[in-house]
């Protein structure tokens, strides 16, 4: 495949506003640039007719039309933020008012790409995939705006190839299609888009208990335009605004046909149906680009192919284990009143904790595939080590998920044996000091005359090791971590003391909840499961755990058992 010149994919006249621009004025600018007429009236004879939305006079290039689905916010020639149609749909779905300046709703942390680093379109495709974005500003060496790249501008720069003709729609289509009935109000459609982070909803009628017939489609752009027109979205039904009739693809159609239809019809979504007209999936221009990306990247160096396949197998196995455990966790959570909140936290944590190692694996594999012949052996080994470390990180997360399930009441019994607690604590500290490579100081203080106490040794080790590991992870290098043990005739008390970053007061009530992490952990990795497991073990041992903390001073965890 001939790789297109990346500069051909840059659109150099994106929409630009200042931070103080009223949001409604920005929306009007977006629609004016697209060439939309705001007067309601009879529809033109078009491939896509809409009974309520105004006439749409399409530009000669779908890519130009697409880049105007976002607005860049500039101040003194520097990018301060970005606003997309998805941001507007989110505002509509959550019932927020649009009478605010652009600065109030813009995304401030904008992902950009320097022109000097834009070596080929696959650099942009990787950023789209890694950050889940659809608009990528291109800047010069002084961080000043040059233009913008989108999936549409990249697709426009691609030349016709036999590779597209060889791939089937079924190879790349998205099968999990978000759809709704024709009588659904548009406000509910906006909420569905916001909930599932999709750019369109397919409007359907039910064929049977498991199959649906597509009738039309409603996009983010339609909702933004209706908001501009001042329509009451709660009173407008999907059937009155959906684009129809639909042009549908068969799973056996080629991607080249899908590519041509998108270009000719000025659309970004094509519905895929079966022989009975039933809904099977949807194809977007992002699907097409990802298929090209994977074809290009399959030119992997033969000597490293075995390593990549091995890591891929491990990743699939890890994902299968995670899926099984996730199903088990969900069955347990359904019995509790906080089901919805815990589900949301779990999905967010898994996405966050797997995205980083998966991105690292993807980047390493891509570097090997694209630059393998030019990489030194040391550099190749470094990439392979990165893949292995990322896979191990995901496996550790799965192990934590398995442990927290096992510590639920009634699922496990303690196995208490006499333990020499002072010796046990000293030995544990020696192990941690060795793995810490002398980055911190350790202190152990023991008060009491009795040494042997009955404990479940495995549980106690997990509790203390987890608390000490957290103390090391969140404390500056060179600081001291203390373990205090007190034994008297009625009570055993452990304390873990650090001089780390501390825990905000508003976070302290939630620290023992699964998947919860403090707001000040920044880039320090973690799943939010450790303290939840510790608390379960302590309660199984008939003990109690508490802590005190101050930001910038440190944290003390205290646990005791009578």
Automatic annotation (TrEMBL):
Domain CBS residues, every copy: 106-166, 173-233, 242-300
Domain of life: Bacteria
SMART domains for the chain: CBS, HATPase_c, HisKA
Record keywords: CBS domain, Coiled coil, Kinase, Phosphoprotein, Transferase, Two-component regulatory system
Domain Histidine kinase, first and last residues per copy: 349-562
EC number: 2.7.13.3
Broad enzyme group: transferase
Residue ranges that the Swiss-Prot or TrEMBL entry lists as coiled coil: 301-339
PROSITE patterns registered for this protein in UniProt: CBS, HIS_KIN
PANTHER family for this protein: SENSOR HISTIDINE KINASE RCSC, TWO-COMPONENT HISTIDINE KINASE
The name this protein goes by in its record: histidine kinase
